Amino acid sequence: MSHPRAVALMVLATLLWSIAGVVTRHLDAARSFEVTFWRSLFNALALLLLLLPLRGAALFRDILAGNRVIWFSGLCWAVMYTAFMVALTLTSVANVLVAMATGPLLTALSARIFLGHRLPARTWIAIGVAGLGIAWMFGVEASRGASLLGSLVALAVPLASSANFTLLQQRAGSARAGGEAQDMPPAVLLGALLSAAVTLPLAWPLQASGHDIGLLALLGAVQLAIPCLLVVRLTRELPAPEIALLALLEVIFGVLLAWAGAGEVPSDSTLAGGALVLGALAANHLAGRRA
Questions:
Q1: pTM for this model (two decimals)
Q2: Lowest mean pLDDT segment, chosen from 57-66, 74-83, 190-199, 224-233
Q3: What angle do CA 107, 108, 110 make, to 5 degrees?
Q4: Inter-helix orientation angle 226-234/32-55, to 10°
Q5: Residues 168, 162: Cα–Cα separation, whole Å
């Protein structure tokens, strides 16, 4: 796959991811863990429909065999699925997405620690500036008496994604070096199953209307299953920091869609903090290209 095509597919994945906030704002009765349960359940069903014809019973081989790589990646996916939707029910779409924008920096740090990737000075500066942006957003929100729980829950998403992307990058590098290739799509399915299983008891009794279930089915299949499989495939073509950087487009797409489709206007502190985070990351990326 050419690099421009890989980048285009990653942009498509972020666009699909970004519809979660605006769709969630149009739910009737489903809340918190029930939203996560239905989305994860429909995600698992969509993945089964997509993967079973291609892999058959082999889809479950590594899961049932207790493959540690598959289970660790699946746990990361489960945390990402669960924390993201719970955070959306606790705070604004913009707050969630800005908190998630720390993903590239956490991924860079994770790659430095676990893969030995050297980080240039510009990346360390970007990490510092982005940290100031997040601290600014949290500080202003706290001073206004707003709850920070949603934003703190949202931070679990970039923490889990950085661990996951680093693992996927390590497995892809091992395969390119002649090692055994690891089939990672089963981990995406495992994550959906784990998320649905954990949140079902917390969501009971279920109260979602037929309208809600239709929207959550859309999220499970189109907003989650398809782009997540795309990202797993693209880890063979793009380095983890570049994937995480392109994933930042979800912040822009998501805030604009929530603004246009649900009338959710981001606060000044969120815009200021987000501008620092995105500006630092964009400057780091452009400086890297020039270098």
A1: 0.78
A2: 57-66
A3: 60
A4: 60
A5: 10
